[in-house]
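Marked as duplicate of an earlier ticket. Keeping the data here for the record.
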Amino acid sequence: MNVLPFNEVARRLDQANITWCVFAGAAASVYGSQRILTDVDILVPSAEGDRLAAIFPESEVEREADGTVRGIKLPGIDIIAGLDSMDLDAAMAERLDWYEVAYVVAPVIPPEDNILLKAMWGRGPEVGKHDWEDVEAMLGNIPDLDWDYLRWRAKECGAEHLLEKLESLRP
């Protein structure tokens, strides 16, 4: 599999007019996590999955049972077409902001969405992940978090049960 630099991945997504954003650990690093960046995860709308394989013919394609493209893997970069719990929808797209990630200025998932995703995943060091560690770092570093939006998104995702824990972690 060819190694594509992140700036080439970004260029191809932009050239194809696909809405995209960095999320998960790379976004957590933008929002306050001090962990070393090991890869870049990119989210695109679920409807764009089938276009990914054409845009990145050198990638490893992950498909759903019905054959639709769920995502692609490149060395150090995973592009996911929607998540089971959350899609890159209009509400999220309106709130994207651009930050430098791995030397590329890229759209980054809103902090509220990334906090909620990491809380929903809730994985820890026992599986090589740092979800709650990232949640705490992001909450401690973003003083103007939009809690109304976070509550709305939690309700949309069926994750309202996490709000009490998130609120308790507020600085």
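See parent ticket for discussion. The helical segments are 6-15, 25-30, 49-55, 90-94, 111-121, 131-141, 147-156, 163-168.
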